[in-house]
């Protein structure tokens, strides 16, 4: 884990506002739900270094970058720091990808439509049907890129000096094909970060340094040690840049 040196001078004059937008990796699934997310741990790292912080978590289970835009437009507060991650659901291969029912904003009618759509798509997975039924990523790569750029633009409209960190989706276990798609979407995040003057944090090296039992709760979702390590690396990236700017 990265060691973070505490500031020699207090930062009580301003509490940093941290906004996290992403899928279940951002939302968090551990119990209790408050205090165990990557966002919570990132803020604690900042506070330990002398930077008090408050947070807003717009993570969304089963969320794609499409929901990310809707959440930004409907709920996002002005932020000093934006932690942004999508790809786990965006890159998923599904039947008839053009047919999609957003999770946000939600309604009873949408829930019924999603249930019927999932029921239908499960039956389209039969080998014979796969030959004739189109399939593809839930959110195509070009749209994913545009969505990520729009989320960054929305954050910068509220605060032009917001510090933006895009972080790659960790690999899943026992699914090489899915990880191949994740690599493509992570590469897109890296490219957007470069072009939009943001930072990018790859998480695969962090996960690779941990035993599977410590890294994963199941085949997909992150465990306590993984979220702690990722949050520490995020904080190290922010504090390092802060120190370079102040020098």
Automatic annotation (TrEMBL):
Gene Ontology MF annotations: hydrolase activity, acting on ester bonds
InterPro entries (UniProt xref): SGNH_hydro (IPR013830), SGNH_hydro_sf (IPR036514)
Pfam families according to UniProt: Lipase_GDSL_2
Domain SGNH hydrolase-type esterase residue range list: 20-225
Protein name: SGNH hydrolase-type esterase domain-containing protein
Record organism: Bythopirellula polymerisocia
């Amino acid at each position: 884990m990265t060691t973070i040196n505490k500031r020699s001078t207090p930062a009580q004059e301003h509490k940093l506002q941290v906004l996290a937008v992403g899928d279940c990796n951002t939302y968090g699934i551990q119990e209790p739900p408050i205090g165990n997310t990557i966002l919570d741990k990132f803020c604690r790292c900042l506070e330990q270094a002398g930077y008090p912080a408050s947070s807003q978590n717009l993570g969304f289970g089963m969320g794609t970058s499409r929901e990310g835009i809707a959440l930004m437009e409907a709920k996002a507060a002005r932020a000093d720091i934006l932690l942004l991650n999508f790809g786990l659901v965006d890159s998923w291969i599904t039947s008839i990808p053009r047919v999609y029912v957003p999770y946000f904003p939600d309604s009873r009618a949408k829930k019924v439509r999603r249930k019927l759509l999932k029921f239908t798509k499960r039956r389209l997975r039969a080998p014979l049907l796969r030959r004739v039924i189109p399939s593809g990523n839930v959110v195509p790569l070009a749209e994913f890129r545009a969505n990520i750029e729009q989320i960054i633009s929305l954050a910068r409209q509220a605060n032009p000096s917001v510090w933006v960190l895009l972080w790659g989706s960790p690999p899943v276990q026992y699914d090489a094909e899915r990880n191949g798609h994740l690599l493509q979407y992570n590469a897109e995040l890296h490219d957007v970060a470069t072009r939009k003057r943001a930072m990018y944090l790859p998480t695969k090296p962090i996960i690779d340094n941990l035993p599977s039992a410590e890294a994963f709760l199941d085949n997909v979702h992150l465990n306590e040690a993984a979220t702690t390590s990722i949050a520490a690396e995020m904080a190290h990236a922010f504090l390092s840049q802060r120190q370079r700017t102040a020098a």
